[in-house]
Specification:
The chain is of the alpha/beta class. Helices cover about 40% and strands about 15% of the residues. A hairpin with a 4-residue loop joins strand 12 and strand 13. It is globular. The structure holds ligand GBH. Ligand GBH binds next to loops.
Length: about 475
């Protein structure tokens, strides 16, 4: 079957923002063109074993050469907003010095193509493609990278800020810091817990410095924000150990970022946990004021929510590393092709909690799912599982609004299948299928459903 039929989603207003999202390294290709310098992902992809299948972003979706057709595709989905990221190594090769006119020209054209079709551009300044030169100088664990980021942000905003009013500084600093510098699953592939936590502070500082520059600029953004990957942390049971484990997970995944951003202080329990692990955040005078520069909107990337236990399977509360146990317990729910459990109700819970604890308007800047798509004889993709995922999560957003959360928009991840980081091209998140042999794009059933849902919901809300 083709999955659930499109119907209006009750409770989403006529001005609710509907979009699709992508990121530069995942779709652009053309990594050596028009003066772009290498990023940490170009380097990381060449490390044997780092990326499934030894794949890389050299060609990806070849979006750099197919941009006008891709904008047509976006328009055909009926969305009002397109969230994309700028490649820092195109805008400012090497991560220092002047802007690169040839790199900037690509985004100039993209913005103009979008505006001509009435689509609002929503720019993310940093979606993980750090110029390799800056990594060689120490990367995010080094304080100077925060200042380099602010300079780059100003160059980008000077070039595009006359037409682009929606700016996100960072995408998912947790991923940059933890996957990049602690677990080594992402570029640059380093493995040092202390470095990862120093990276957290410098990412947040870079965000704050960039936010100040954008606020001070002539055409200040209408909506300035940051995007975090967020979920829920539910204790497995009532025990003190389980509750402490969930609180630790929430501290390391959510409060470590949102408390300084919104309240201007790091959470005391997290600071103590880091001290137990021998780590001090490199906070200098004034940093927390900078980091807590007021935000207009919080971008939320949601994929799943977790249950935590504070004991091992054998009942021990301390692991081999001598640290308290923080163990994810499966819920036994269906999973996507990434292995992530599908728990839409946790999106409602998350949004209501964010409203209560942080009080910012939110936008879902990413939500979506990889499934093992098959292509029918006529080329169609009947991805009923993906459609159901979107339907359930969009309803979860409406439920959060009904419960008082100020959620203003929803961006599907992703416009099209793309380079899924360490998983290569095997994991497909697109509303649109990409045939990587021919670069042919085909709107999947989920994409048609999304288009119809937006149209019906807008029409119903307009009355
Ligand atoms: C996003 O990251 C990225 O912004 C985007 O570029 C990417 O393509 C997309 O998601 C899909 O991966 O194994 O159950 O503990 C998402 C990052 C998703 C981080 C879920 C942690 C926990 C899953 N994350 N996740 S689990």
């Amino acid at each position: 079957g083709t999955g659930p039929a499109a119907e209006p989603v009750a409770g989403l207003p006529a001005d609710f923002r509907w979009g699709v999202a992508t990121s530069s390294y995942q779709i652009e290709g053309a990594t050596g063109e028009d003066g772009r310098s290498p990023s940490i992902w170009d380097t990381f992809c060449r490390v044997p074993g780092a990326v499934a299948g030894g794949e890389n972003g050299d060609t990806a979706c070849d979006h750099y050469h197919r941009m006008p057709q891709d904008v047509e595709l976006i328009a055909s989905l009926g969305v009002d907003t397109y969230r994309f990221s700028l490649a820092w190594p195109r805008i400012q090769p090497g991560g220092s010095g002047k802007g690169n006119p040839r790199g900037i020209a690509f985004y100039d054209r993209l913005v103009d193509e979008l505006l001509e079709r009435g689509i609002t551009p929503w720019i993310t300044l940093y979606h993980w493609d750090l110029p390799q030169e800056l990594e060689d100088a120490g990367g995010w664990p080094a304080r100077d990278t925060a200042h380099r980021f602010a300079d780059y942000a100003e160059i980008a905003h000077d070039a595009l800020g006359d037409r682009v009013r929606h700016w996100t500084t960072l995408n998912e600093p947790w991923c940059s810091a933890v996957l990049g510098y602690d677990t080594g699953e992402h570029a640059p592939g380093r493995r040092d817990f202390g470095d990862s936590m120093r990276a957290v502070h410098h990412l947040l500082l870079g965000h704050g410095l960039a936010a100040q520059r954008l606020r001070a600029a002539g055409s200040a953004p209408e909506e300035l924000g940051i995007t975090l990957n967020l979920g829920t942390a539910t204790p497995a049971g009532d025990s003190e150990a389980d509750r402490a484990a969930a609180r630790r997970a929430d501290g390391m995944g959510t409060r470590l970022y949102l408390d300084p951003l919104v309240h201007g202080r790091y959470p005391q329990d997290v600071v103590e946990h880091l001290a137990e692990r021998g780590v001090t955040l490199p906070v200098e005078d004034g940093d927390l004021e900078t980091i807590s520069t007021p935000l207009d909107v919080l971008g939320v990337n949601y994929y799943t929510g977790h249950v935590f236990s504070g004991t091992t399977e054998d009942g021990a509360t301390t692991g081999e590393d001598g640290l308290p146990v923080t163990r994810v317990v499966p819920r036994g729910r269906p999973r996507t092709a990434m292995g992530w459990e599908i728990v839409p109700e946790c999106l409602t819970e998350l949004l209501v909690r964010l409203q209560k604890d942080y009080g910012l308007p939110t936008v879902i800047t990413e939500n979506g799912a990889a499934f093992d798509d098959t292509v029918a004889g006529d080329g169609a993709v009947h991805d009923a599982d993906r459609t159901a995922y979107f339907a359930d999560h969009i309803r979860a957003v409406a439920a959060a609004r009904a419960a008082g959360a100020d959620v203003r928009g929803y961006f599907a991840w992703s416009l099209m299948d793309n380079f899924e980081w360490a998983y290569g091209y095997d994991k497909r998140f697109g509303l649109v299928r990409v045939d990587y042999d021919t670069q042919r794009r085909t709107v999947k059933d989920s994409g048609l459903w999304y288009r119809d849902t937006i149209r019906l919901t807008r029409r119903a809300a307009a009355g």
